[in-house]
Amino acid sequence: MVNETQFKQILSELGNIDSLVAVSKTKPIEDIRALYDLGQRDFGENYVQELQEKQPQLPPDIRWHFIGHLQSNKVKYIAPFVHLIHGVDSLSLLKEISKQASKNNRVIDCLLQVHIASEETKFGLNEEELQSVLESVKNDGTAFQNVNIRGLMGMASFTDNEALVKKEFSSLKALFDKYAQVSIFNSPFSILSMGMSGDYKIALEEGSNMVRIGSLLFGERNYPAT
Ligand SMILES: *Cc1c(COP(=O)(O)O)cnc(C)c1O
Questions:
Q1: Residue 86 CA: which ligand 1 atom is closest?
Q2: Nearest C-alpha neighbor of 184 from the set 128, 141, 127, 216
Q3: All residues at 6 or more sequence positions from 6 whose CB lies less than 8 Å from its CB, including other chains
Q4: Which of 1, 30, 116, 117 could form a disulfide with 154 if both were Cys (CB 3.0 to 4.6 A apart)?
Q5: Among 81-85, 90-94, 168-172, 177-181, whose mean pLDDT is lowest?
Q6: Which residue has its alpha carbon closest to ligand 1 atom 10?
Q7: 211-213, strands of its sheet edge to edge
Q8: Mean pLDDT for the stretch of residues 22-36
Q9: How far is the CA of 44 from the centre of ligand 1 (A)?
Q10: Secondary structure element (H or E) that encloses residue 108, with its range
Q11: From the CA of 196, how far away is ligand 1's center (Å)?
């Protein structure tokens, strides 16, 4: 777990604490609270059940980000409180989020996940699918009334080939810029979520304005969480 000096060091690299999502998956409540006490308010989880268990035990002003792969049938469990859903990768999921948000009298901010890695295993939309999702949302106002598409999210290949990672991030930035200019929605399309512990510096160079950092803050996880 980082100490205060190390935490401030990381923050100074980011420039803005609001661009840091501290990824606390698999980590205990005490660790989250320790970072909260240093001023961190944005935390990211990627298991619905784990998030559901942690949220009531922690201060209500924490902004919870859901960064994992979200199944439609689980949206209802996080809809009452989730702040931003990063990994939206289908129209049907987006529709369900809007439905559950409406039941809670909320509008939920979402990012569309784009597949940028050369690996097969990562989730996300390709460029055409992204275009098609955005068009559907634009053309069917009522089904998506309770979601705001605030930007894009992506994960680079898990590799030490920095040139490849750089290329993947820059391709996502280009897509982001394309849609940010068009500004099809009433809420600003202004969030570009890319970069993790191992590649956030490259992500920032390539234009990220939201990084999701876990192990660098909390230490290595004891079991793999994807
Ligand atoms: C686990 C996870 C992270 C954080 O990973 P670290 O390498 O520990 O920083 C970021 N984004 C997503 C989607 C994750 O699942």
A1: 13
A2: 141
A3: none
A4: 116
A5: 177-181
A6: 212
A7: 191-194, 147-155, 108-115, 84-88, 63-66, 42-45, 20-23, 211-213
A8: 97
A9: 9
A10: strand 108-115
A11: 6
